[in-house]
Design goal:
- The complex is a heterodimer of chains A (313) and B (335).
- Chain A is mainly alpha-helical and 313 residues long.
- Chain A has 13 helices and no strands.
- Chain A folds into 2 domains: 86 residues, no CATH class; 220 residues, MetI-like (MetI-like fold, Orthogonal Bundle), CATH 1.10.3720.10.
- Chain B folds into 2 domains: 219 residues, P-loop containing nucleotide triphosphate hydrolases (Rossmann fold); 89 residues, no CATH class.
- Chain B has 10 helices and 12 strands.
- An 8-stranded mixed beta sheet of chain B has the order 6-7-8-3-9-10-12-11, with helices on both faces. A 4-stranded antiparallel beta sheet of chain B has the order 2-1-4-5.
- The chains are: A mainly alpha (313), B alpha/beta (335).
- The interface between A and B is medium-sized, with 22 and 31 residues.
- Bound molecules: adenosine-5'-triphosphate and magnesium ion.
C-alpha cells in the first residue's frame, strides 16, 4: 500500500510540472504590459523600467521561467501587484473557507446521493426511482448561482432559518456551521445529482452479476447483499465521479461563495480579475492546479481502497 | 408377532411435479413443467439436456433464487430433508440456503465478489448460519480451505478472487457451499469452465466431500462422460420436460426416448469411428414456439400423429425405475 502511494505521488510530479509551465505561459501571453497596467499611461519611462526590473520582467523569458519555477518550489507565489502583499498570504487566509465549503458539499452530496442511487436501483421504476431521476435532473440543470439564490430566497428570506450571509468566523462554531449549511447544500445538490445517477447505474449493473447470486445462495440477508456485495462494487464509478467533479465543484464554489457572500477563493479571483492583478491570478492558478492534482491523487488512492484489483498492480 | 416394515430412507431432495413459469414480454410460459425426481443422501443424480432445456431453472426453483418478478414456481413441491420449500417466505429461505441446501455455479471467474477477500466470503456463510465470528470463524475458514485443498491457505485467506486461478476459485466456491454441511448440493455445470485435469480434480473433491458428509448431489452437466463416472441416476430434460429417467448403466445401455438415443449418438466416443457422430438436427424450440404435446416432436425421427398429445412419464426401458415420456412402444402410440 505504501509503495502504491509513493508511486502515485511520483506520477503526479510530471502533471504538476506541466500545469505550472502552462500557467507561466498563459500569464506571459496575455497582451499588454503589466507595468503599464499598474502605473497607468501617465507613467514615465523610468518608472516603467524600474517596475519591470522589480517584477523580474526585464530578463529573458527562459530566466523568468526558471525563477518562477524556483520560487513556486519554495512556496513563494510572489507579491500581489495591486495589494502589495504576498500572494500566498492572501490565499492562505481564505483557502480554508473554500476547502471547507467544497469538502462539506461533497460529503453532503455523497451522503444523500449514495442511498438515493441504491434505493432507486433497488426499486427500479418505483416512486423512489422517479424521485431520484427528478432530483438528478434538477441538480444537473440548475446553475449553482440560480439554485443558490432560490435557496436564499426560500430558506433565509421567506423562512428565516438560515443567515443570508453564508459566513461566520471559525471561532464561533455553532454560527459558523449554521452559515455553512445553505452554501454547502447548494454545492451538495449538484453532487447528489451526479452521485445518485452513477450509483444507480452501478448498482443495476452489479446487482445482476453472478456474485450476487452466489451471495444469495449462501443465505446472505437481502440487506447485506445490496449494501455490502453490490454497493462495494458500485462504488468504483462513484469514486471516479467524485474525483472528476472536484474541479467542477471548486468552480461552483466560486459562484456559491459570491452568491452567499462568503470569503474564499471566489472573491479573491473576482477581485484579481477586476484589478488585473497578474501575480495574484498566476498564484491562484497555481493553487487551483495543486488542488486539482491533489484531488486526482486522492481519487487514485481511493480507487485502491475500493478495488483490490488496482491496489496490487 | 411384530411386523417389521423395512424403513425406506427419506430422500434428501424430492422434487414433485415442479412447474416453473417465466414471464416473457408479459406472458407466462412454462419453462419447467411437471418435473419430478428424488436424490437420496450420498447419491449423485445427473441432470442432463441441451442448452436452454430448463436445468438451471430447475435448480434455481429448488434454491428459491428465480429472477424476481419474472420467474416463479407455478405448482408442485420441493422438499429438502423433508421440509417443503416452495412458497417459503424469503426470510426463512435465507436460513436454508447455504445451510441445508447449497449451490455451486459454472463460472468460477465471476461467481466470487471481486472486492471482498475470499476468506471473508467463506466466513459469511458461517456467520449467517452458525453464528461464528472473529477468530472462531477464521479458524473454521482455514479448516475449510484446507479441506478443499487450497495450498498455503493461511497465507491466502485474505487474498482476493483475482489472485486465484479458475480451479482454485471453484474450490473456494465449494468451501463456501459445504461450510455448513448441507444435506443437498446443487452443482450447476461446476466443471464446464475448467480445463480437463482441473475438472477431474474438482470432481474428485466433490466426491470426497460427499463421501465424508453424506450430501445428496444434483449434478447438472452436458458432459455424458462425467455422468457415467459420477452419477447413479440420470434425469434427461428436453424443453422443460423430464423425458427420461433411469439408473445410469441402464441409461447408457438402453436409452429409450428418441431424444436420449440421439443425444448419446451425438457424443464422440473413443470406441466409435468419428464419422458415426450424428448431431441432432434442428434446434430446441424457444419458449414461444414450444409445440403442444411432446416437445421433441419437431425434431424427432419417429414423430407420429399421437405426439400432438403430451405423453405421460411411464416405465419404458425394461426396468420399473427406468421411465420415459414417449408414445413409442405404447399401445396408445399405435406401435
Ligand atoms: N431470466 C430469464 N429471463 C428470460 N428467460 C430466461 C431467463 N432464465 C432462463 N430463461 C430461459 O429459460 C429457458 C431455460 O433456461 P435454463 O437456464 O434453465 O437452461 P439450461 O438448461 O440451464 O441451459 P444451459 O445448459 O445453457 O445452462 C431458456 O429458454 C432460457 O432462455
Ligand atoms: Mg444452465
Amino acid at each position: 500500500m505504501l509503495r502504491f502511494v509513493a508511486l502515485r505521488l511520483v506520477m503526479a510530479l510530471p502533471t504538476l510540472w506541466a500545469v505550472l509551465s502552462l500557467v507561466f505561459v498563459l500569464v506571459r501571453i496575455v497582451p499588454g504590459d503589466p507595468a503599464l497596467v499598474i502605473l497607468g499611461d501617465q507613467a514615465t519611462e523610468q518608472a516603467l523600467v524600474a517596475l519591470r526590473h522589480r517584477m523580474g520582467l526585464d530578463v529573458p523569458l527562459w530566466d523568468q521561467y526558471l525563477q518562477f519555477m524556483a520560487a513556486v518550489l519554495q512556496g513563494d507565489l510572489g507579491i500581489s501587484m495591486v495589494r502589495n502583499r504576498p500572494v500566498w498570504g492572501e490565499v492562505a487566509t481564505v483557502l480554508p473557507y473554500t476547502l471547507e465549503l467544497t469538502f462539506v458539499g461533497i460529503f453532503l452530496g455523497v451522503l444523500m446521493g449514495l442511498p438515493l442511487g441504491v434505493l432507486a436501483a433497488q426499486h427500479r421504476g418505483g416512486w423512489i426511482d422517479a424521485v431520484a431521476r427528478w432530483t438528478s435532473l434538477l441538480g444537473l440543470s440548475f446553475p449553482a448561482f440560480i439554485s443558490g439564490i432560490l435557496m436564499l430566497l426560500l430558506l433565509a428570506v421567506e423562512l428565516p432559518w438560515f443567515p443570508v450571509i453564508g459566513n461566520a468566523p471559525f471561532a464561533n462554531p455553532p454560527a459558523h456551521l449554521r452559515a455553512l449549511v445553505l452554501p454547502a447544500l447548494n454545492l451538495g445538490f449538484i453532487m447528489v445529482a451526479y452521485v445518485a445517477r452513477v450509483t444507480r447505474s452501478g448498482m443495476l449493473a452489479s446487482l445482476s452479476e453472478d456474485y450476487i447470486r452466489t451471495a444469495r445462495a449462501k443465505g446472505v440477508p437481502a440487506r447485506l447483499v445490496v449494501w455490502r456485495h453490490a454497493l462495494r462494487n458500485a462504488l468504483i464509478p462513484v469514486v471516479t465521479v467524485v474525483g472528476l467533479y472536484f474541479g467542477i465543484l471548486i468552480g461552483n464554489s466560486v459562484l456559491t461563495e459570491i452568491v452567499f457572500n462568503r470569503p474564499g477563493l471566489g472573491k479573491l479571483i473576482v477581485g484579481a480579475l477586476n484589478d488585473r492583478d497578474y501575480t495574484m491570478l498566476q498564484g491562484l492558478m497555481v493553487i487551483y492546479a495543486l488542488v486539482v492534482v491533489g484531488a486526482n491523487l486522492a481519487t487514485d488512492l481511493a480507487y485502491g481502497a475500493v478495488d483490490p484489483r488496482i491496489r496490487v498492480r | 408377532m411384530t411386523n417389521v416394515v423395512p424403513l425406506k430412507t427419506p430422500p434428501a431432495l424430492a422434487v414433485k411435479d415442479l412447474t416453473t413459469g417465466l414471464k416473457i414480454r408479459g406472458i407466462w410460459h412454462q419453462a419447467v413443467r411437471g418435473v419430478s425426481f428424488e436424490v437420496m443422501p450420498r447419491e449423485t443424480v445427473a441432470l442432463v439436456g441441451e442448452s436452454g432445456c430448463g436445468k438451471s431453472l430447475t435448480a434455481m426453483s429448488i434454491m428459491g433464487l428465480l429472477p424476481a418478478k419474472v420467474g416463479k414456481v407455478l405448482s408442485g413441491s420441493v422438499t429438502v430433508d423433508g421440509r417443503e420449500v416452495v412458497g417459503l417466505p424469503e426470510r426463512e429461505f435465507e436460513g436454508l440456503r447455504g445451510n441445508l441446501v447449497s449451490m455451486i455455479f459454472q463460472e468460477p471467474m465471476t461467481s466470487l465478489n471481486p472486492v471482498l477477500p475470499v476468506g471473508f466470503q467463506i466466513a459469511e456463510t458461517l456467520r449467517r448460519h452458525r453464528g461464528l465470528d472473529g477468530a472462531a470463524a477464521r479458524a473454521e475458514v482455514l479448516r475449510l480451505m484446507n479441506r478443499v485443498q487450497i495450498p498455503a491457505s493461511a497465507r491466502r485467506i485474505d487474498d482476493y478472487p483475482h489472485q486465484f486461478s479458475g480451479g482454485m476459485r471453484q474450490r473456494v466456491m465449494i468451501a463456501m457451499a459445504v461450510a455448513c454441511r448441507p444435506k443437498v448440493l446443487l452443482a450447476d455445470e461446476p466443471t464446464t469452465a475448467l480445463d480437463v485435469t482441473i475438472q477431474a480434480q474438482v470432481l474428485n473433491l466433490i466426491a470426497e466431500l460427499q463421501a465424508e458428509d453424506g450430501m445428496a448431489v444434483l449434478f447438472i452437466t452436458h458432459n455424458l462422460g462425467v455422468v457415467a463416472s459420477i452419477a447413479s441416476r440420470v434425469v434427461v430434460m428436453y424443453g422443460g420436460d423430464v423425458v427420461e429417467t433411469a439408473p445410469v448403466d441402464d441409461f447408457f445401455q438402453r436409452p429409450s426416448h428418441p431424444y436420449s438415443a440421439a443425444l448419446l449418438k451425438s457424443v464422440p466416443r473413443a470406441d466409435r469411428r468419428p464419422d458415426s457422430l450424428e448431431p441432432i438436427p434442428g434446434q430446441v424450440p424457444t419458449l414461444f414456439q414450444m409445440p403442444d404435446g411432446c416437445r421433441f416432436q419437431s425434431r424427432c425421427a419417429h414423430v407420429m400423429e399421437v405426439c400432438t398429445r403430451r405423453p405421460p412419464l411411464l416405465p419404458g426401458g425394461g426396468r420399473p425405475d427406468h421411465q420415459m415420456r414417449c408414445w413409442l412402444g405404447r399401445p396408445e402410440g399405435g406401435l
